Each structure stands twice: as C-alpha cells, then as structure tokens.
Amino acid sequence: MNVSLSERVSEPGLHRPRYTLALLTALSAFSFMDRQILAVLTQPVKMEFNLTDLQIGLITGLGFALTFALLGVPLGRWADRHERRSLVVVCRGVGGALAALGSTASGFWMLLFSRSGGAVSDAGGNPASLSMVADLYPPAQRARAMSVFASGGSLGALMALVGGSWVAQAYGWRVALASVGCVSLLLTTLLWLTVQEPQRGAGHNPLDAQQSQSAAVRDIWRAPVTRWLIVAAACVLLAGYSFGTWNTALLVRYHGLSLSAAGWVSGAAALASMAGGLVSGALADVLTRRDPRWQMGVPMLGVAAALPAGLAYLMLPAGNLTAAVPLVVLYAFFLTWWVAPTYAALSLVVPPSQRATASAMLLLAGSIIGNGLGPILTGWLSDRLTPLAGSASLAWALALMLAMLLPALLAFARARRAYIPALAANRAPVPASTLSPTPT
Fold first, then answer.
1. According to DSSP H, which parts of 50-62 are helical?
2. CA-wise closest residue to 262 among 375, 369, 160, 134
3. 150-191 confidence digits (pLDDT tens)
4. What is the pTM of this model?
5. Which CATH number fits domain 11-200+210-426: 1.10.10.10, 3.30.2310.20, 1.10.10.60, 1.20.1250.20?
6. Distance, CA of 271 to CA of 66 (rounded, Å)
C-alpha cells in the first residue's frame, strides 16, 4: 500500500505535545520577529525613505492593527469550528511570504502594505495555536505550557533585536526582512508535514461551535472575568508595544548607542522578558493549587513591579547606562508575568467551543489599542514634546504610555473578583481551600 509523505511523517510517534508546542512556539517567535524587526530597523529605514516618526508609527502599528481588526475574531471563530492546524499553516505561511515581500519595498506605501498584511499570521495563527495548546495539556499544567508558547514573543523580540540588528548592520535591512520570511515558510512546511490536529478537550460540543460569531463574542464580553481580562491586556499591551517599538530608537537617540549596541541592550531585555514569562507560568501553576485566584494575582504582581522599574529607566539622564541596563531588564522580566496566567485563565472560564474566539478577542484588543495606537501615539507625543523636552521627548512620551499599567492593574483586580464564580460556572475544579478568602 502506498503511503503519502504527509501521512508517513504524521504517524502517532511524531504527534507529541512537547514537539507540537515547540513548533508552534517557534512559528510564533518568527512571526513576532517579523513584527518587531522594524523597531530595530527604524533608523536606517527612516533615513532611506525620509520618514517622520508618525509615519514609522503607522508602519509599525496602525496598519497591522487594522488588518488584525478585520480578521482576528472571524479567524478565531473559524478555529473553534474547523481544523486548527490547517489554519495555522495557511496564516503563518501568508505572513512569511509577506515578510519576504517587504524586503523589496521602495517606499512608505509598500512598507505599510507588507507590514499590514503580516497581521494575517497572528490573526489566525495565535488563537488557533492557543486553542491547540489548551487541548494538549491538562489544566494543572496549562499555565506552564502557555508560558512556553508565550515565550515565542520574547524569543522573537530577542532574535529581532540581536540577530536582526547584526544582519541589518552587516548586510542591510532588506536581507534581514527576507531572512525572517524565508525561515517562517520553512517552519510552516514542517508543521504541515509533521503535526496532527489535537483532539478537542472534554466539554467540547460541536453544536455549540456552530454558534454565530456575534453570539459568541457577546457571551464572552458579557462575562465579567473575560471582559476585565481583555481590558487589562489592552492596557498592558498599550504600554508594552509602545516601549518595545521605540526603545531601540531611545537608546540610539538619547543614550548615544550604536544600532548594534542598542540591539544588545534590548536583546538582554527580551531575554529577561522570556525568562519572566516562563517563571510566571510555573509560579501560577504552583500557587493556583492553593488558591485559583493566584491566576490573577501573578499578573497583578508582575504589573505592580514593572511600572516603577520602567519609569525609573525612562527618567534616567542621558548616557547613564550603568543604571539603564539593569532597570530595563527588571522591567522586561516582570512585564510578561500577565501573559501565561491570563491565557490559561481564559481556557478555563470559557467553553472549549469558544476558546479560540476568546483568545482572538483578547489579541484583537491588544492589536488595536496596543500595537495599533501605541507606536503611533508614542511617535505623535514625541514629535509634540520635542520643543519642550528636546532629546528627552521620546523618553517622556514612553513614560506617559507606561502609565497605562495603572488601569491594567485595576482591571486585573476586577477580573480576580469574578474568577472563582466563572470557574464554577464553567464546571472547572475549584479546590476546597478557596471556600474561605485567601488574600494575595
């Protein structure tokens, strides 16, 4: 009997949770590298095309956000109804192809188109991947598994800031963009050939999956815990994307570093971010055995620690790298503590037939408000503050964006109040220790 290549390499021996998680994480990393790499290439691209900070903000943020806004929830709903593996393959493949196309850009509009189209990769790839991870791991291990997948974003930022800056300095920014696209296409092919669709978890009702998109979105938004988690994520990502997009430029303009040196500093922050995300996932899995409300408590601790570290970094005088490096590393370490516990919480308080849709809604809020408004608003504030603050205008603009961590902290607190009732409503196990209040 003849066996096709895709059938042969998709045998059960290759269908392992760790392998699938690793490949999904790698695809997420290169997708985020594609999105983040223009933060490294801001100065050479700006000089070549004579762009303003506002135009850079449009390229790095708003175009991506608008595309994600159109596709995020519909593709999330598709993932709840159909095979998620195929959706990941298609969306990540399109994203890789557009990343490679961006290397041929001849001006602002071509860059805007390729950056905007790259949103397809995350709009379909991330919700489907998160839903797959939720079905690959039991609830007791889910925050840790989610932290591994979430580390793809930090790993992608690290590769963009260190590897991307090196390639751009040695061979030019066009080669850097083309390299990201080609590797993404190779990984997409590997996923298509070697990964099977996981069986959906207990409680998945195919009839529920046929619920209309508007009805699913309405149900998710009406639930207090999911609503406040979406609000909290939007606020954190408004601060996070603004900082991530402009920090390399801040190091070059304000602290006088070379592009390569700035890449190494930002790379250290990205490494700390990845470590912080992994720590938060493991910590949440341990602490929630005592009290499930730690699922919200861990993000609250991270945001509360990141805010003063980030503000202290931005208020440093120019050239004070002795304090700048440890402060930015500390900020990055704590900022990602919200990610894994939040996505794990979503997977526990919404039915399996709505998991990808809920993840898409959270990603959509972060994309529009964080990735869409954050970079462009920061660029606009920097331009407006230049007459008052001079070379420190970008630092002041970023400090104003970082202040959004305060409403994020309040939103996580509201979600924490609603978390136990939501677990009970979704028939998730609640330890007996939660019957009496345990402060976090």
1. 53-57
2. 160
3. 888 878 877 887 777 778 777 777 888 888 889 999 999 999
4. 0.76
5. 1.20.1250.20
6. 29
